[in-house]
């Protein structure tokens, strides 16, 4: 189902400011690192941004609030594990966080944990003491704030997460076989009706990469309106009868994608790249004021889907 909120992940900047996580900005940053290291496979940056978002959403952290340094450290680990050390080094250099010497200064650790983990009172004092003790036992005197935040998060969630909870997986990339399912292979399995929707650019699909196996679907409402020969202005009720046909095409894409990949649990991302233009032209609505209404309209379409949508993006 469509998430009720567009940004469920929050980031804490080094200044302490709380901002929503925007995967598009992360993707742009990773793309710059890839280009700087001589790699121009644009889908890789999107894969990693989606992998990070998926990992953060499924993190045991109940508040879904993360330090910006944690985010960048996760990107670096994924890049290194995926076989792109040069890209990882570039991203690390351009998103560096100053190291601090705080193992012997509980006041600095306490301030850090309060800012990044929203801890207060007895819980803050208790976890600060544990982090300071752990750093001392490990002989740490100089490290990035990420290490102290990670130690604090460990002690914060150690008693909240069941022992059987599996750790989050860092994706690994097979550079010799980058595609788990190639687009041509997937397209050849689809029905004639679905291929027609794709040829008319009403539905868009991508291959499934081996870096972050996920299904990415697109709906272009401007193309749908042209296909249906609608003239502005239309109402939501005029669109609803066509949602079943649209959903049948999306279900066809998902069904064959899952079968070819051998995985029916992969996350599905649904993107509507022209929703703002459609709302203004065909619904005579203001944007972004009408975003909530458009998401409600999409919920009628999603009710016809045979799979869960991890995230929808309206542009």
Oligomer: single chain
Task: State the share of residues found in helices, binned by percent.
Answer: 40-55%
Dominant shape: globular
The total of beta strands comes to: 9
Structure description:
This protein is an alpha/beta fold and 315 residues long. The chain has two domains: 1-173, no CATH class; 179-314, no CATH class. The chain is 51% helix and 10% strand. It contains 14 helices and nine strands. It has helices spanning 23-36, 42-57, 68-81, 85-94, 106-117, 121-138, 145-157, 183-187, 192-199, 221-227, 236-239, 243-261, 275-282, 291-302, and strands at 10-12, 18-20, 65-67, 179-181, 203-205, 208-209, 215-219, 268-272, 311-314. The strands form three sheets. Strands 5-7-8-9 form a four-stranded mixed β-sheet.
Helix-strand blueprint:
Elements: E1 10-12, E2 18-20, H1 23-36, H2 42-57, E3 65-67, H3 68-81, H4 85-94, H5 106-117, H6 121-138, H7 145-157, E4 179-181, H8 183-187, H9 192-199, E5 203-205, E6 208-209, E7 215-219, H10 221-227, H11 236-239, H12 243-261, E8 268-272, H13 275-282, H14 291-302, E9 311-314
Parallel strand pairs: 1-3, 7-8, 8-9
Antiparallel strand pairs: 1-2, 4-6, 5-7
Helix pairs in contact: 1-2, 1-4, 3-4, 5-6, 5-7, 6-7, 9-12
